Here is the input.
Amino acid sequence: MTRAAVAGVAAIPVRRKLERSVRDTAAGVAFAAVADAGLDLGEIDGLFASPPALGGIPSFMWSCTLAHHLGLSTRTQTLVECGGLTAAVAFKLAVQEVRSGRLRAALVLATDVRADERADDFEFFIRNMTEQLVGLYGPHDALYGLAAPIPYYAMSAQRYLHEHGLSRADLAPVAVALRDFARDNPRAELRKPITEADVLAAAPICPPLGLLDCSAFASGAAAAVIVSDDLASRRPRVVVRGMGEAHEPAHFAPLRAPLSRFESPRRAAAEAYQEAGIAAHDVDVAEVYGVFTATELMLYESLGFFDEGRAPAAVRDGLTRGEGATVFDPSGGRLSLGHPAGATPLYSLVEIVEQLRGACGPRQVKDAKLGLFHAEHGMLNGSFVGVLEAA
Amino acid sequence: MKEIVDAATAGALGLFGGAATAEFQRRLAAKSLCSTRCTRCRAIAFPPREFCPDCHGREVEWVELPRRATLYAFTQQQRGLRFLAPEVVGLVEVEGVGHFLSRIDAPFESLSIGQTLEVGFAEAAPGVWVHSYRPV
Ligand SMILES: [Zn+2]
Here is the structure.
């Protein structure tokens, strides 16, 4: 089997709105990632794209539109969609085709647009949103008036605190830690320092979650070039050591499984760790898909880094910020880097690749050799874990 | 706005719902909370299906669920789409079924995990019903 390497990466700063059209933004990160790999777009032989946005704008034949616009002649071209897992699945498919020897240089391209100008047409917006929410939550849960999926995550947070005898104040330090990292990341959407008191005093959204416990909807675009490792010219090479993917038979709230720990990250991590021949504590730097403070903490546990209920104390003790085996979310994470969901997994990949290259400046994790990124859909109903190594 | 939401809901239920959803709705409108039980493995699905999502058996029967539930988790939305804000929702645990989303008909501040609830019903849109639990 050919080894796959991530030879080039690119991402624009996460912001509320894109500065250019989604097509021009996608083209921009495609050129940047291919240049970062030391290649030419003409050498790309596979395109794995996300929809232009995860909701609200049409995606029919988007990969065809992109390939035509970019002038790509390839052997594989596809559009991938699996909620928040979208860009991670696109990455996995690209790696598998490179490993199989069928492709030499695959482009993974992901965008998301969260500020839809057409929302200005109120009637269109409400009708469109109502239909989309019934599609999203299904014809049963959708009738309870959920807009964003925050209530599900709030109830998961409530169960986590309840089962471990914790309080809302135990969630705040991780929001502060992530904001501290984001200060040194020009790509991050939220960089103004915050305190635990700020987190606790922020406007309530869905109790126990307040505004600063939540990631903000955002727009963004990122790309990665996956090559057979003989084509990777940069040193160190960043090779893909292991991948895992797992889905549970649930969509948002599970009928019977607990809400305070999650099977999908556990199963995906077990597969990825086994392929890589590592254990969680071998990982130097990790980017996880924690879109709320409590979710971030539960993920540290479900991915095998801490025992259940122990993550809040670990954060307080600095174990997630450099005092422990693994540094978590030096990008600022979903809470402060920002969360353009359709592209979020690639933002995590970009951070891990740049960390393994030693190119992250003031937020660089010392001697980072082994990195992990995680992505999920629904409420941790499905997960992907990728393990990368500087070689 | 309510007219737009109601019309869009009816259209979307036709698209994303189906026979089991329609039957569930008919029973809710008659103030009866029901779901489907597998005749092979006896698991009760929720929401109802025309097959068993646990063992994938193809034969199911409709059963009425216990009227009592316990509160598994709850929160409220400051801005809801359908009901008056603030809107309280919860996961209610029904014995032999599991925990599922419901409207909760009580102030957020009065609620606590584990308390006993009883099922009630509310009309979310013309002809579209939801279950709405209240403390007993
Ligand atoms: Zn069955």
